Amino acid sequence: MQIQQLPTHVAAQIAAGEVIERPASVVKELVENSLDAGATNIAISIREGGVAEIRVADNGRGIAANELGLAFTHHATSKLSTVDDLETVSTLGFRGEALPSVAAVARVVCTTRPPDWEAGARIEFRYGTSVGERSEGCPPGTSVQVSDLFGALPARRKFLRSAAAETARIQEVVTRYALAQPEVRFTLTVDGREAINTPGSSRLQDAILSLYGSEVTGRMLPVSLGDGEVSVDGYVGAPDLNRRNRSYTTLLVNRRWVYDRSIYYAIEQAYQGTLPERRFPLAIVNISLPPEQVDVNSHPTKREVRFRQGDRLFSLVQRAVREALVAHAPARTATRSFAPTLAGSAAAPSAGPPRPSSPRDSAPVHDGMALSATALAPAEASLRDVLADLRVVGQIRQTYIVAEGASGMYLIDQHAAHERVVFDQIRRRTQEGERPSQPLLAPTTAELSAAQAVTLESNADLLAGYGFGLEPFGDRAWLVRALPAGLAARANPDPAAALCDLLDAVAVEQVVMEREDALAATVACHGSVRAGMTLAQEEMDALLRQLQATENPHSCPHGRPTVVHFTEYQLEREFGRR
Ligand code: ADP
Ligand code: MG
Q1: Residue from 33, 42, 54, 70 to probe ligand 1 pocket by mutation (most atoms less than 8 Å from CB)
Q2: Over the stretch 170-201, which tens digit does the pLDDT of each residue have?
Q3: Model pTM score
């Protein structure tokens, strides 16, 4: 072949690959543009993993009609004009590559109107070719609709994963930016269903609450530490909020979502030994520093940055996170406090390093003292034996089982404990090829959302293996004929609704867990006794016996503790007997 200059549109499509790798990259670039435009409201909707359609609408400053065509050409940006500007750039975008790249690989319609303009403008592209521009009435702000992504590039399409997996990535991008910018209201609609809706109240806690729920929010500790012009702020989770991978650790640099191996390590180091092995913290950490101290132009998708003073940041972040953990763990600092003791060990405080307890672990007692309890650690060889000897005293709040044993008092989270029992049963039966399935007396039809249907189809093999009897029944409808035996009783009276719930939960779990584990954990969760259920004495006794027989009695499949221990020594100290 002779050397030849590639036709412009071919070159553009190749270059676009640098910026637009998958649907989530489109969402990231468009959201960054909306944020740079000062939007306070960003509405994102996607269909079929973003491949069929992505729409991002904002109420930002809009694009002047006479500049709209220009915005879609390469290297066209309003964010910097000289190389020196790059030193101090404070916008998320600056390369002028996103809009032309998106337009090169999809069908794109953009409508926009600056708030003080009377008329808006509309421009449309098909795989790099402009197919018209005209004025059009539209609300102030900008809306970009991207459809049939990579439609003309079958080779790129092949590299995309299932719609559920691409949806999960998009959800991750929106989550991270919603955490980065709590001033902005974000909504994400997935196949017509609202998946994310943050209030835009400016309070990070509110964003955390809407994204991660109240249980997590109640156990997040504020971080705030400054050193001259550099400061670190955010929230970190109490150690017991640990997760299976790093997708719940959000690192922001001047509110830009980035990945930095060393800073992630600094955050994890701060937890020094308080996290179980291969578990990761839940954290939102923002580093604020003068823009000239960070190079944001060192990575094709701006995912990574380079710091002038990496070492200083490492120790500042580590110190900030550690101080947050210590400050909110009275057991570490109070003089009359208890270091954690091992279950079954002598009734005396251990000499080992104290570890912070979360607010959830500690019940405030008179004069600000805290009684610190210890979740049973996996390393304790005698756990199993401890459980065997427990005598159930009763149930409180229809949630916890109170028990006494040789070395003190034990609280067992009934849901977490049962989840562990059911999870182990499911895994064991699957390995043994058993399918304890219970046919429904009257099969019911479940109408699924597109996302649920995708989750179901991509897990059909596993679902059948767990005892689900499901048959396609028209467009997105499935006939539920049988359920796993453990689930059947709890799925009543509405097995279809139970299936829909379960599929939603699987989609969420699959972001952070292996496919098999995610499904088993979800089925276990749905087939377990809930908090809020009254248990009979025999049921509680049986639950403890079953828990004792599991492989991993100390935590539920999501990593939460099943048992919390108060030693006799702790109790005696609290009551002034020692
Ligand atoms: P960059 O963000 O690097 O400048 P883009 O290709 O993403 O490059 O966007 C080009 C220009 O179009 C931006 O500099 C900005 O002026 C304008 N623009 C893009 N999206 C929006 C938006 N949502 N609201 C207002 N202006 C926008
Ligand atoms: Mg941009």
Answers
A1: 33
A2: 999 999 999 999 999 999 999 998 889 999 99
A3: 0.64
Whose CA is closest to atom 13 on ligand 1? Answer: 77
Q: Which ligand is nearest to the CA of 63?
A: 1
Distinct helix (H) and strand (E) counts, the chain: 21, 25
> What's residue 242's pLDDT?
82
CA 178 – ligand 1 centroid, Å: 19
Beta carbons within 10 angstroms of residue 115's beta carbon: 11
Q: How far is the CA of 368 from the centre of ligand 2 (A)?
A: 51
Highest mean pLDDT among 6-20, 35-49, 518-532, 547-561: 35-49
Q: CA–CA distance from 51 to each of 160, 347, 575 (Å)?
A: 9, 61, 63
- In-domain check, residue 1: no
Per residue in 132-156, pLDDT tens? 999 999 999 999 999 999 998 888 8
**How far does residue 205's CA lie from ligand 2's centre (Å)?**
28
Residue 182 alpha carbon to ligand 2 centre in Å: 20
Q: What is the CATH number of the domain that holds 72?
A: 3.30.565.10
User: In ligand 1, which atom is closest to the CA atom of 60?
Assistant: 24
Tell me: pLDDT of 291 over 80.
yes
Are residues 165 and 31 part of one domain?
A: yes
Q: How far is CA 296 from the centre of its chain?
A: 25
Domain boundary among 162, 194, 226: 194
Alpha carbon of 126 to those of 108, 110, 220, 534: distances in Å? Answer: 6, 12, 46, 61
